[in-house]
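Example complex used in Figure S2.
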Amino acid sequence: KQEVTQIPAALSVPEGENLVLNCSFTDSAIYNLQWFRQDPGKGLTSLLLIQSSQREQTSGRLNASLDKSSGRSTLYIAASQPGDSATYLCAVRPGIYGGSQGNLIFGKGTKLSVKP
Amino acid sequence: GAGVSQSPRYKVAKRGQDVALRCDPISGHVSLFWYQQALGQGPEFLTYFQNEAQLDKSGLPSDRFFAERPEGSVSTLKIQRTQQEDSAVYLCASSLASGGALGEQFFGPGTRLTVL
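Predicted assembly (232 residues):
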């Protein structure tokens, strides 16, 4: 059974720091991996989608990497800003032999606080 | 609007009442997913539709939960005889592709259900 773990559960950094959020998954047979941002009381905003054949994706100050064989992904945030404060969720779409119809399996998230 | 919308945004129900939660996916999106998010947890899969066909309902926690998408667009998640453990945020997501090429999932703002 696929399990997704995110470390740390919470992180507080001063504005301007570069930071890395970690995500690990137990079964390397995945179709893709998606990083989301969730603000309090809100839905999920998709940040980056990495297909299983890709190693990384970049969007602005965000860079996500994927090492499928080791079951790891990282989300790198450059020059953090107070507006980046939110919970960041990692989710994998299991491969076809995982019985998946496309649903995502989520970690519990990392709550990020960027202090001015 | 271009995004996924859900209504109501908040619902308070007395234990034993029936509730109906609505999801309007992005126009043209074939796949639709329902997830349940408990406080402090990542979303967990409930059910999946491809057009009007419910292809996977393995995540529905009990037979009190029922979902439909009769015309392949709007979907309704119904919970009968609500219990306190049903209190959670219910998220709807849609994606453009179907079959084995499911892509990026876009989420609505969620419905926060509180059962008293």
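Chain B touches chain A through 30 residues (CB under 8 Å). The mean pLDDT of chain B is 92.
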